[in-house]
Design a protein that fits this description.
This protein is α/β, with parallel strands linked by helices. Helices cover about 30% and strands about 30% of the residues. Helix 1 crosses helix 7 and helix 4 runs parallel beside helix 6. The protein starts with a strand and ends with a helix.
């Protein structure tokens, strides 16, 4: 199997490592500049031609370049793995492209690896039997420590014009909430960029999603030094808390589920799903491009 990767940054390397663990694949990386650095077991290519020779495409370049690449791939009729978020913005032009790709029954998947975290999967199986009164999601960590070998102010996360901002960087939280409890009836949100990080992208986001019987509050930030990532469900009988970092679930303070699966392991499980379920089938609705665009609307639409 021959794979073309567009964008060879840190996230692409996680996907490459997952592919190498799962089998022997011919992996190529499209590079825009000659003499670009190489990566183990990956062949650099410098032209975007003869695309029919590849079995699938993996888009992991900066978010603001996704539209251009998808527009060039839309008529190739090969599976496409797109790293989240789908786009940096919503527009009529982007919506039409999503509709066009979907109408062609292209096999697409947008990478939201937290769907493969065992603690979240455990809670998803419980939710249908719960009377939920309230949901609280919190995800806070320290952006300068995300990529310690780089100046964080120069990364896409810190730059609005590159598609950065905590609201879209941590769209994982919106995605798994949508995946577990569905689309809300109403969305309210507030974005800020006032922290000591002094960046031009959103560094704090707060969402209130209203459902028929409950509300869900989501807080995201880039500046918390003691990382915290939790999903709390307040029911009529108890409080469930998923600690995504520990990969465990508690009910009223008592551990009812735990896993030794590290979040990094979810990349391999996600890629295994893509290779076995999407490559080998004619269609997919598990976070396909249409679903991901719905979540992006919830993230960005006023």
């Amino acid at each position: 199997m021959r794979i073309l990767i567009i964008g060879l940054g840190s996230i692409a390397k996680k996907h490459i490592n997952a592919l190498n663990e799962l089998g022997n694949y011919e992996i190529f990386a499209y590079r825009s500049k000659s003499g670009a650095a190489t990566f183990k077991n990956v062949i650099n290519v410098y032209d975007f031609d003869n695309l029919d020779q590849y079995d699938f495409f993996l888009i992991s370049n900066p978010t603001h370049k996704h539209f251009e690449i998808l527009n060039r791939l839309k008529d190739i009729s090969k599976p496409i793995f797109i790293e989240k978020p789908l786009f940096e913005a919503i527009s009529n032009e982007k919506e039409k492209l999503v509709e066009q790709i979907s109408s062609l029954n292209e096999r697409t998947y947008v990478g939201c690896n937290l769907r493969f975290l065992k603690s979240l999967q455990y809670v998803k199986d419980l939710v249908g039997n719960l009377r939920i009164n309230e949901i609280n999601i919190y995800a806070g960590s320290f952006l300068p420590e995300w990529r310690p070998d780089l100046d964080f102010r120069k990364t896409y996360s810190a730059n609005e014009n590159m598609g950065g901002g905590v609201h879209i960087d941590l769209i994982h939280e919106l995605d798994y909430l949508y995946w577990i409890v569905g689309i809300p009836n109403r969305v309210n949100k507030n974005f800020c960029k006032k922290s000591s990080l002094d960046i031009n992208a959103v560094d704090y986001a707060n969402y209130l999603w209203e459902y028929d019987g409950f509300c869900a509050n989501i807080i995201l930030n880039y500046y918390r030094r003691d990382s915290k990532r939790t999903f709390e469900i307040v029911t009529d009988r108890s409080t469930l808390i998923v600690d995504l970092i520990k990969n465990e679930v508690t009910e009223n303070g008592k551990i009812i589920f735990s896993s030794d699966q590290d979040i990094q392991h979810t990349y391999k499980e996600q890629m295994h799903f893509f290779l076995n379920q999407i490559i080998n089938q004619k269609a997919n609705t598990f976070n396909d491009i249409s679903t991901a665009y719905k979540v992006l609307n919830l993230c960005l639409k006023n």
